[in-house]
Amino acid sequence: LQASDLIITPATTFKEKPDPSGLVFGTVFTDNMLTIKWSLASGWEKPYIKPLENLSLHPASSSLHYAIELFEGMKAYRGVDGKIRLFRPSLNMDRMARSARRTTLPCFDQNELLECIRKLVEVEKEWVPYSTAASLYIRPTLIGTEPSLGVKKPTKALLYVILSPVGPYFASGSFNPISLWADPKYVRAWKGGTGDCKLGGNYGSSIYAQQEALELGCQQVLWLYGEDHQITEVGTMNLFLYWINEDGENELATPPLDGIILPGVTRQSILDLACNW
């Protein structure tokens, strides 16, 4: 995978940019996308930036039947100086590479893919909201496209990236509290599983519990683990706990990276800041 091979044939017709104050998460998409095909026989093909379009997949594609796929979530922000910046994207590339190994999808050069993503954001720079309350969400995705019903490592895959201008994930806003629902009868992940990878299957299997939480008036699920009901993470985010201990000391704690929780970029950033405070 080489960014120097990137072929750019952008859209010639453009959609109207939405009002940043009225964005609903993940429902509006930009004019262009990045696609890169891979096969065991030929390796990575040339990357393309082209108009956003539907995918053409064989109905036996392994991603559709056996969830051989992964995704990432990152953002581009427009600063008060007008410059566009990605937030610690190398951490997303590291996590994406780990997810690829776990799902037997093809490895890739993280720096080269990141450069292709930067080029896509550059092409779509006017889609980065002029707002401190909104951003451009970047969704890299890697799926197995093996046209076979055999349960095996795929010999074909597709990596694509789509962009979506977004406001706060929750309708209540970015800095307002949300309610959590915890019930040990549901388990999101377990040791030896894939809870530390960003896979669609981890999210799809959690929707049943999430719907129950909504029906009970809560916005998210607080996932528990083990006979002692250890706190792990929330459905769409990691978790921190802050308190003053018996000795009057301030303490900040978060569950460890033991294979059960997703190693979040925001989580790591908070730890980096707190350790140097």
In short:
The protein is an alpha+beta fold and 277 residues long. It has helices at residues 62-66, 89-102, 110-123, 200-204, 207-215, 265-275; strands at residues 7-8, 32-39, 43-44, 48-51, 69-71, 74-78, 84-86, 135-144, 156-166, 180-181, 220-225, 230-234, 241-244, 250-253.
CATH arch. level architecture of the largest domain: 2-Layer Sandwich
- Name the poorly predicted regions: none
Taken as a percent bin, the fraction of beta residues is 15-25%
Query: How many extended strands?
Result: 14
Order of helices and strands: EEEEHEEEHHEEEHHEEEEH
Taking the sheet with the most strands, its summary is:
9 strands, mixed
From the alpha carbons, calculate the radius of gyration and give it in angstroms: 20 Å
Number of distinct helices: 6
Shape: globular
Query: What is the number of independent domains?
Result: 2
Reading off the top of the CATH hierarchy, the class of the largest domain is best stated as: Alpha Beta
The level of helicity is 10-25%
Mean pLDDT across every amino acid position: 95
What key phrases describe this protein's structure?
nine-stranded mixed beta sheet; EC 2.6.1.42; 277 residues; three-stranded mixed beta sheet; transferase; D-amino Acid Aminotransferase, Chain A, domain 2; 2 domains; alpha+beta; B_amino_transII; amino-acid biosynthesis; pyridoxal phosphate; D-amino Acid Aminotransferase, Chain A, domain 1
